[in-house]
Amino acid sequence: MVPPPLTWLFRTVGQPIRVDVYAELVAAFAATAIMLRSIDQRGWDGIDLSLASAKWRAMAMGLVAGGAPIALVCGALLATGLMHFVAFPAETAWMGAAFRIAPVLVPAALAEELICRGYLLTVAREAVGVRAAVAGTSVMFGLLHIASDEATVMSVAIVTLAGLLLATVRLATNSLYAAWMAHFAWNWVMAALFHAPVSGQEFEAPGYRAVTTAPAWLSGGVWGPEGGIMAALGLIGALGFFYVRQRREES
């Protein structure tokens, strides 16, 4: 029901854009609203998506938690020669491409957060405890990426690890907005700053494009820099930060 009117709208304004991410977002919001309001009869605060959860500190922490690890990973790959830049036709301006990438990544990140770390994470935590809930929703998040182009066992496992980080961000900040920002920042840094593939998908790359080299298990290969051991180390480092932070708060 959603894609046809969106397709018409974007064609009317002369801005071609993927409508599937918006359709997925509308569906995720609708399903969440039905479960929260009609079935459970609770508010959006039940999934940390109320206005009270939209705190700038939490959202800023999410941006750093998502953007910093992958930026460091890409920097390490460049420094070790596992990734390099190749010239690419600059048919559009760099800044314009960076802004055009956002209308795809922003709704896609929010839809996946609603699906994997919204209502399902909340009810799973209430039913089986926080550790099992985080593990289960993270595995689901990884399996959702099996159908992506060039997906491998390694890349799916690392996406699962990314799910652990995103769930940790939500729970540590009590804000699904923060997890959304972390998810978006992770993808935007790769797509807009380094012009690298995101889960095997390429975006506009005016002027240059990042290319990873063998071995793929270390650099990520055609899946992009988030598909190798280097990315796993970056995620583990981010998880370690939150672990230390929690220990300090408890003490």
Keyphrases for this structure?
mainly alpha; two-stranded antiparallel sheet; globular
Describe this entry's structure for a reader.
The chain has 251 residues and is mostly helical. It is 67% helix and 5% strand. It contains 10 helices and 2 strands. Strands 1-2 form a two-stranded antiparallel sheet. α4 packs parallel to α5 (119-128) and α5 crosses α6. It is globular. The termini are far apart. The model has no long low-confidence stretch (mean pLDDT 91).
SSE topology:
Blueprint: H1 3-13, H2 20-40, H3 56-79, E1 83-88, H4 94-117, H5 119-128, H6 130-143, H7 153-173, H8 176-193, E2 207-212, H9 216-219, H10 229-250
Antiparallel strand pairs: 1-2
Helix pairs in contact: 2-4, 3-8, 3-10, 4-5, 4-8, 5-6, 6-7, 7-8, 7-10
Radius of gyration: 18 Å
Q: What oligomeric state do the depicted chains represent?
A: single chain
Gap from first CA to last CA: 52 Å
Percent helix: 55-70%
H/I helix tally? 10
Strand content: under 5%
User: What class would the helix/strand composition place it in?
Assistant: mainly alpha
Largest sheet: 2 strands, antiparallel
* Number of E strands: 2
The low-pLDDT segments are none
Shape: globular
Average pLDDT score:
91
Order of helices and strands: HHHEHHHHHEHH
**Biggest sheet: strand arrangement:** 1-2
